Amino acid sequence: TTRKLIATAPLSNSLQVDGTFKLNWNDLSVTVFGSSDGNRRFHPYVIALIGTDEAASGYITLFQTINKYVFNAAGIRYDVQYLLGDGTKDITAAKKFEFLNSRRLMCWPHPIRKIREHRKMVPVEKRWKMIF
């Protein structure tokens, strides 16, 4: 990231985090940290290759690094009120170390996928009878 971009982090009260596997030939996790502005543009602060599986220790290190660099660039503490990411327990565990007062939110696609998976477990003919 750039010093100018990381200095804008305190202007947002949210941090978005997501990682995915199988984007590179080593099967390393590619993790992206950033925030969105009022015009819904995403600004990445960190794009990292994680050498191990998604573990809380990796997220703790990355959260600490973000906090350190934001403080060095902007001179103020990064107050994350909303931590948005997928449903992994590792992000939630890491939040308890670095962003104690933030609320943990799930991003839109992950709950929708889960809802659709659970919906498939109910036979089609019973779905509407259960609702009404």
From TrEMBL:
Residues 15-110 form the MULE transposase domain. It comes from Rotaria sordida. The lineage of its organism: Eukaryota, Metazoa, Spiralia, Gnathifera, Rotifera. This is MULE transposase domain-containing protein.
